[in-house]
Amino acid sequence: MTNDSSHRDTYDVGLRIRREVLGDAHVQRSLDDASEFARPIQELVTEYAWGEVWSRPGLARRERSLINIAMLTALNRGHELQGHVRGALRNGVTVSEIQEVLLQTAVYVGMPAALEAFRLAEAAIADSPRVEEPAQS
Predict the structure, then answer these.
(1) Of 6, 42, 96, 110, which cross-links 34 as Cys (Cβ 3.0–4.6 Å)?
(2) Could you report the per-residue pLDDT of 31-67, keeping only the tens digit for each?
(3) What is the pTM of this model?
């Protein structure tokens, strides 16, 4: 059974990773804006999604970002999608790779979801610092 210090350690790891992927400002705003009612879900997301899952060695952050973009498109979760597109860019995913993932989602989850994801991803990319695309081989 885990104790309070191990929960705190996992939360701290999750908070660090969450800030590295999504950016300090975004994470701080999410935490500051959480009501007393919503605070437990912010803590749960930080500890388990970021501290337990994102810290695992089985996949690199860039692969986790690509997977999240596909899943959030399939679930039609636009707000989360935009944050994860910005995070993907921080994790070394290129704009071309994001485009390819979204094209693939169109075939498997439907055109309306992919069209909306393209619109939201393009806005998130435009709001992000410029990322150099690697030369095509």
Answers:
(1) 42
(2) 999 999 999 999 999 999 999 999 999 999 999 999 9
(3) 0.87
